[in-house]
Amino acid sequence: MKILNSELETIAVKPNQYPPMDVPEIAFVGRSNVGKSSLLNYLTGRKNLARVSGSPGKTRTINFYKINNGSFRFVDLPGYGYAKVSKEITKDWGKMMEEFFEARENLKRVVQLVDIRHEPSKQDVQMYEYLRYYGLSGVVCATKGDKVSGNEKQKNVSLIRKSLGLGPEERVIVVSSLKRTGGDDLLLALEEDI
Fold first, then answer.
1. Which residues are within 8 A (CB) of 131 and not within 5 positions of it... i.e. 6 or more apart?
2. Please, where are the H alpha helices in the chain?
3. Which DSSP category does 170 fall into?
4. Could you tell me if 31 and 81 are in contact, meaning their C-beta atoms sit under 8 angstroms apart?
C-alpha cells in the first residue's frame, strides 16, 4: 500500500462528532509517549500531520485522518497510562474508547504501539485483551526500533509476544520513525484491511 496524500478530517471527543462510517478505518493506540504521532507522520510522509508533543498525555481527542483522497482513514486514539494525568481524565479516556470501539462498524483494525525498549505494561496487556475482545487485534507495532541492537530486538520482540499472549498468526512489526524503517512492513500488514 502506498500513501499518496493525507489530511486531518475531524477531531472528536464523542460519537456525534465522528465522521460518517463510509470508508474503512485503521486506528492506532498506545501509551503516552510511545511515538504514535511520529509513526503517523512517518507512514503518511508528512512532517506535521499529527502533532508531536514534548509532554506526554497531551492528545485527549480522537483525530481522524483522511488517507488517499478519503479512500480510508487512520484514527489517532489518545495515549493512555501517563501518571500525571488526573483520575477524572483517565475515566473519561475509558468512556471515550468504549464509545469509539462500540460505535465504529467500519473499524477494521487497531494497531497497538509498544515501546520495544520496555516490557509491555499492565495497561498495554489490558488494551490488547480489550482489542482481542472486539476482534480488532493482530498487529502490534514495536516503536523506537533504532534504540536497541539487533540481538536486543529479537529478545524484546519475544518478550512483547509473551507478555501480550500473542498467537503465531499475530504480528509484531518493529518500526523506527527516526530511521524510517519498518513502515512498509506495517503498511503491507494493514493492506488487507483496507
1. 29, 110, 112, 137
2. 36-44, 87-103, 122-133, 150-164, 183-191
3. S
4. yes
- CA dist 118 and 28 (Å) reads 19
* Full-model pTM: 0.91
Rounded Cα gap, residues 27 and 51, in angstroms: 16
* Grid cell locating 164: 501480550
**C-alpha triplet 156, 158, 161: angle, nearest 5°:** 110
pLDDT in tens, 105-142: 999 999 999 999 999 999 999 999 989 988 888 899 99
Half-sphere exposure of 48 (CA within 13 A, CB side): 0
Q: Report the alpha-carbon distance of residue 63 to residue 69 in Å, rounded.
A: 17
- Name which of 100, 179, 101 is nearest 146 in CA terms: 179
pLDDT, tens digit, 9 for 90 and up, residues 161-186: 999 999 999 999 999 999 999 999 99
